[in-house]
Amino acid sequence: MQEIEVKYRLRDLPALEQSLAERGLVLSAPITQDDQAYARVDWSYGQSKIGVPFARLRTQDGRHLFTVKTPLVNELACLEHESEVADRDQMHQAIIQMGFRPTVRIVKTRRTAQMAGMELCVDEVEHAGLFLEIEKVLDAGESGAVAQERLDAFARSLGVELERTADTYDSLVRAALV
């Protein structure tokens, strides 16, 4: 499946919550996501991510999810495969054995709302700040870039101060820590 997203630094959470409420949306209770990001051993920050597979191991509510994302047209439009795994430590070792190395740990508190096939996520990311991320799974043949333009238009229609970023959370956290 192709998952696309747009991401924004969020400056005024109460204004966003008010705008969502005006559309009949309420953010969910917060959940914590503990993600370990992985890159191939021959890739390093500063190189293009397009066409390069990246792995993630997430723990949320006692469940462990293994994800591989390959950016297609940009870092936020990816071919994605995800599956639950029973043992985080064993999966970590398997990922390393497959030729990946751990890059950064991303810990965030997430609240979500669903609307018209979109998932709106408000994320408080340790070391990086507060973000609004809007995700959508595309139908076969749909353009990621065109879908991102539609998601951006929706985000702008919310009428709150947003600063768009093309960076992924691993890049944002890494930049904050170096």
Automatic annotation (TrEMBL):
Stretches assigned to the CYTH domain: 1-175
InterPro entries with a match to the protein in the record: Adenylyl_cyclase_CyaB (IPR008173), CYTH-like_dom_sf (IPR033469), CYTH_domain (IPR023577)
UniProt-listed SUPFAM superfamilies: CYTH-like phosphatases (SSF55154)
UniProt cross-references to Gene3D superfamilies, sorted A to Z: Hypothetical Protein Pfu-838710-001
Coiled-coil stretches: none
Membrane-spanning ranges: none
Pfam families noted in UniProt: CYTH (PF01928)
Protein name per Swiss-Prot or TrEMBL: CYTH domain-containing protein
Organism name: Acrocarpospora macrocephala
